[in-house]
């Protein structure tokens, strides 16, 4: 029997949250998730103990706070191409950061504020994201 990799387990956990409603600062799937909450809930589902910032605004110039929390949550900075299970921070607009869990080539799972739910969508990951991480 082949065991799933941590990345496969993370993607499966995120996939199971598709359809969860969007809620800014949401950390409980029963009440709603934002992009940070999706990553936290997915990591918790696979047995990790992530730490996450709270009290942030939708518009935010400095991603340093998020970078600090990723490091203490067991995520390692990655470079190069995005792989299944990577967590990618992009800049969708001025003064915005957004987290996406890479599912497979060209697709990601994220909490979409406009659609008001967690979705799986085609994604074009930038060559130079703000940051991108991989499970240790």
Strand order of the largest sheet: 3-8-4-5-6-7
Order of helices and strands: HEEHHEEEEEE
The rounded distance between the terminal residues' Cα atoms is: 23 Å
How much helix is in the residues? Answer: 10-25%
Main sheet attributes: strand count, strand direction, barrel closure: 6 strands, antiparallel
Relative strand content: 25-35%
Structural class: alpha+beta
Mean pLDDT: 88
Q: Outline, from the CA principal axes?
A: globular
Question: Could you name the ranges where pLDDT drops below 50 across 5 or more consecutive residues?
Answer: none
Number of helices: 3
Care to count the β-strands? 8
Question: Radius of gyration in whole Å, from Cα?
Answer: 14 Å
Describe the structure.
The chain has 136 residues and is an alpha+beta fold. Helix content is 22%, strand content 26%. It contains three helices and eight strands; from the N terminus they run αββααββββββ. The strands form two sheets. The chain has a six-stranded antiparallel beta sheet. A hairpin with a 2-residue loop joins β5 and β6.
